């Protein structure tokens, strides 16, 4: 009987639990429904963001992106129907037993199921989309930066032949070019790559510089990276080929493989070279490597003739556009100097830039240079390379002709990086600063790079991003080989970057006098227990597989100033770390470090500390000891929960980057906190800040930010619960501000403070949800504003007549409007003299923007209007001829 009674109790209990669960679902259905509405909007926002980004770059989505977007359409449509059914029935009273209750229960289950489907959809996006890189198909062409027109009859003839082979001769599918470094192989390929007929013929041109260690898999990876396709480390050659074929299907392709060092079977290159639509051009130093890849045509590069070499020498030595005649004696000596370069283009250009002024110099100066070039140093060349020693002498002279020891060391630092690496200039300058080779990372920081570029010792490319010029530096392989050798012989610097080293190179450390060591971008997992190099100043170990720093490894590095352990899986720093009293530069980004213990990090001399993209959870009191710190980077530390208020004592700090960390600053410390955290007031005590990026957990009050008078770049992100109705008036004091980013600032109107920020050249407003108009903000008075972006301001109806008024925005070149669903027009009309320098107008997802303003033809420098093609076809324009001229791209 007891067992029956127990069973009955179980049934009743189970039923009661089910009923309580249903009641709980019914009582929470409104919250679930609200969450569903939010998730629907979130998914739609993601799709809009994807489409906008792709449209802005003129790309089509990757296959995985197309599939996800298609899937989300069905899920979102179903979820919207569920939400609509809920809305229709939500006001009906429930009693748990009538038909309405059954409808409500069914609706509740549908809402929960819809939430599960959306959650799975978002997980699918996170797992399938590329973690880095673009979501669209590769760009149609990849242009290479070009120098001046090539010199030499031979090169001009080969350019003509190439054009025939590429465009007309179907029997030529692979062309090989070989010759020694610096003889002009890459320059020839750049001319081919940028040839207008070639670009028009081939749908896609892909340029890949092949590293020394590349095999077929490595080459495939580089191709993926070049065209921004997602790459998986476990890709097989066949899998990568399959992905590539789907992307490259039905396209005319031109592959340019520069500086191939080993034989590669190009038939496995994820493409079929048997098709007439695909062609490959490759360069190599080695004739046998070139021949082994079975080209249909081969070209042996030739040196310039003596007269051609003299012509190129004069172009480098004589100031362009200056009509100068040489003294006969000097001309004779100069010709002899040019002749010493043996017709080698790179050597001629590099040496020519070191020559003295023609009219202010004596013949004896030229005689000394010629004598130095003829004095061959038998040690100065790499025996294992096919490089003539009389070619290295002119390059060595160019190095020694640099005016100062500091400038020479700055040049040698380039050899610490991998071959063919595009080096971030600001990162390079930080290393120079740590060794006191330059004085400032702000004023005149690029002056040394400009000198090196003028001497043809480095190449520089400047890209504009968010109103900021991003400098990238590259060094020719031949010059890098020379720098590696000189650094080792003259400066006790061992540079072994990117050589696929799987073990620490113990044999190379017989010399205990090394001053600089670079082992970056290798495959080294273990470090020695003892590393006795008391003179070592710089140690670069980044991008290895090192998991642990042995206690004794750092024990004897008393003079160390630069330490880079970034992109390694290390989790802890040893206690011996605190003995590095001279350390200036500490790079720990993208490591697995969660905690910096006070006893291991009492460093008063550190000027640069980067822990970005690490799982760091707190910045403790040890921070107050780092009084010399100038740059602190904690961007994307998603676990960072605590920052000590002692951060206010970093009085030398010039840059604080806490963009998209978990930690957000309140105006003042929150009452009731057990342990006081840093506040915005603490940050604003840092008077010498020049760059600041952080999130805010409360509105900025008046008289808070006025101390930041040296600020040049400011990024602010307000958290969702914060309502900043106006910006504080003491922002007027930021007279040096050049770049301003305001994210999720719920600003309805603001005092007329922007007109005081006359140095602003870039401004971005994103997600200002209550902003109705830009009228009254006086952006048009900003005399140096070059670029402006307005994004996701959902209620913004008008930009204001200021955008069409004569004299407004005198230097604005780019205006981007994205996801402004209420915006109806730019302005009613554009007067002559308004926006006089505007070149690009981008309009995406502004669904009510249907009419282009009158007087658009007054914008004399307007080159393009960018937007969705569907929108462009429907847009009304008073001047159709003008519209056709500005065909949207």
Can you characterise this structure?
This protein is α/β, with parallel strands linked by helices and 889 residues long. Among the domains are: 20-128; 153-300, Rossmann fold (3-Layer(aba) Sandwich); 324-401; 404-476, Winged helix-like DNA-binding domain superfamily/Winged helix DNA-binding domain (Arc Repressor Mutant, subunit A); 492-610, Leucine-rich repeat, LRR (right-handed beta-alpha superhelix) (Alpha-Beta Horseshoe). 32% of the residues lie in helices and 13% in strands. It is built from 22 helices and 26 strands. The strands form four sheets. Strands 9-10-11-12-13-14-16-18-19-20-21-22-23-24-25-26 form a 16-stranded parallel β-sheet. Strands 2-3-4-1-5 form a five-stranded parallel β-sheet, sandwiched between helices. Strand 7 and strand 8 (468-474) form a beta hairpin. Helix 2 packs antiparallel against helix 3 (63-89), helix 3 (63-89) packs antiparallel against helix 4 and helix 13 packs parallel to helix 15. The chain is globular and about 90 Å long. Residues 93-100, 319-323 and 376-388 have low confidence and may be disordered.
């Amino acid at each position: 009987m007891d067992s029956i009674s127990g069973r009955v109790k179980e049934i009743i209990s189970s039923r009661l639990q089910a009923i309580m669960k249903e009641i709980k679902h019914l009582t929470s259905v409104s919250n679930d429904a609200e969450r569903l509405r939010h998730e629907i909007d979130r998914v739609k926002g993601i799709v809009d963001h994807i489409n906008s980004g792709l449209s802005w770059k003129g790309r089509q989505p990757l296959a995985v992106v197309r599939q996800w977007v298609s899937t989300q359409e069905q899920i979102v449509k179903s979820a919207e129907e569920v939400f609509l059914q809920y809305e229709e029935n939500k006001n009906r009273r429930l009693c748990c037993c009538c038909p309405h209750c059954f409808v409500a229960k069914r609706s509740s289950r549908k809402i929960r199921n819809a939430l599960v489907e959306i959650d799975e959809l978002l997980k699918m996006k996170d797992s399938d989309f590329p973690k880095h890189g673009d979501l669209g198909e590769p760009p149609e062409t990849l242009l290479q930066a070009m120098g001046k027109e090539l010199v030499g009859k031979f090169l001009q003839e080969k350019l003509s032949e190439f054009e025939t082979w590429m465009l007309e001769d179907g029997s030529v599918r692979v062309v090989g070019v070989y010759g020694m470094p610096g003889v002009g192989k890459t320059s020839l390929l750049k001319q081919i790559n940028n040839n207008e007929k070639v670009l028009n013929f081939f749908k896609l041109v892909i340029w890949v510089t092949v590293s020394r260690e590349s095999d077929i898999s490595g080459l495939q990876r580089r191709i993926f990276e070049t065209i921004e396709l997602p790459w998986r480390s476990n890709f097989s050659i066949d899998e990568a080929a399959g992905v590539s074929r789907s992307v490259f299907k039905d396209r005319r392709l031109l592959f340019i493989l520069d500086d191939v060092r080993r034989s590669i079977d190009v038939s496995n290159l994820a493409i079929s070279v048997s098709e007439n639509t695909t062609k490959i051009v490759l360069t190599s130093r080695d004739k046998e490597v070139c021949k082994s890849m079975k080209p249909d045509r081969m070209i042996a590069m030739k040196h310039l003739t003596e007269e051609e070499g003299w012509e190129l020498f004069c172009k480098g030595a004589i100031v362009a556009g200056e009509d100068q005649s040489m003294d006969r004696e000097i001309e004779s000596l100069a010709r002899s100097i040019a002749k010493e370069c043996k017709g080698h283009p790179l050597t001629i250009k590099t040496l020519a830039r070191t020559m003295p002024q023609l009219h202010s110099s004596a013949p004896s100066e030229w005689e000394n240079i010629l004598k130095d070039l003829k004095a061959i140093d038998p040690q100065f060349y790499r025996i294992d390379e096919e490089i003539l020693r009389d070619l290295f002498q002119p390059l060595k002279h160019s190095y020694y002709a640099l005016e100062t020891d500091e400038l020479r060391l700055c040049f040698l630092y380039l050899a610490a990086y991998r071959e063919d690496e595009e080096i971030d200039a600001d990162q390079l300058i930080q290393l120079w600063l740590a060794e006191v080779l330059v004085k400032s990372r702000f004023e005149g920081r690029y002056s040394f790079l400009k000198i090196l570029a003028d001497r043809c010792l480095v190449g520089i490319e400047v890209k504009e991003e968010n109103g900021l010029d991003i400098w990238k530096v590259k060094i020719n392989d031949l010059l890098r080989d020379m720098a590696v050798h000189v650094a080792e012989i003259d400066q006790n610097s061992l540079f072994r970057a990117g050589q696929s080293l799987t073990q620490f190179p113990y044999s190379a450390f017989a010399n205990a006098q090394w001053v600089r060591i670079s082992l970056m971008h290798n495959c080294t997992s273990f470090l020695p227990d003892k590393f006795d190099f008391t003179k070592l100043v710089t140690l670069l170990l980044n991008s290895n597989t090192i998991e642990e720093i042995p206690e004794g490894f750092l024990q004897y590095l008393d003079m160390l100033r630069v330490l880079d352990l970034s992109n390694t899986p290390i989790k802890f720093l040893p206690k011996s770390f605190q003995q590095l009293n001279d350390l200036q530069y500490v790079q720990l980004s993208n490591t697995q470090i969660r905690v910096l213990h006070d006893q291991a990090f009492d460093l008063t001399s550190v000027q640069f500390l980067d822990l970005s993209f690490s799982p760091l959870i707190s910045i403790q009191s040890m921070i107050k000891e780092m009084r010399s710190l100038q740059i602190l980077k904690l961007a994307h530390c998603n676990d960072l929960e605590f920052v000590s208020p002692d951060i206010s004592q970093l009085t030398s700090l010039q840059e604080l980057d806490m963009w998209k960390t978990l930690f957000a600053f309140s105006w003042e410390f929150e009452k009731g906190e057990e342990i006081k955290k840093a506040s915005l007031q603490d940050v604003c005590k840092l008077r010498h800040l020049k760059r600041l990026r952080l999130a805010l957990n409360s509105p900025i009050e008046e008289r808070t930010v006025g101390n930041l008078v040296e600020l040049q770049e400011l990024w602010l992100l307000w958290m969702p619960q914060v309502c900043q109705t106006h910006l504080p008036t003491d922002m007027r004091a930021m007279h040096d501000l050049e770049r301003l980013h305001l994210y999720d600032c719920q600003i309805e109107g603001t005092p007329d403070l922007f007109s005081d920020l006359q140095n602003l050249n870039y401004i971005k407003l994103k997600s200002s949800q209550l902003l109705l108009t830009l009228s009254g903000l006086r952006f048009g008075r900003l005399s140096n504003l070059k670029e402006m972006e307005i994004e996701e301001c959902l209620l913004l109806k008008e930009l204001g007549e200021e955008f069409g008024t004569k004299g407004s925005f005198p230097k604005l070149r780019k205006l981007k409007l994205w996801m402004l669903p209420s915006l109806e027009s730019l302005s009613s009309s554009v007067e002559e003299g308004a926006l006089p320098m505007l070149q690009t107008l981008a309009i995406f997802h502004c669904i009510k923007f249907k009419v282009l303003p009158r007087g658009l033809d007054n914008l004399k420098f307007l080159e393009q209007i960018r937007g969705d093609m569907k929108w462009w076809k429907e847009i009304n324009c008073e001047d159709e001829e003008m519209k056709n001229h500005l065909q949207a791209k």
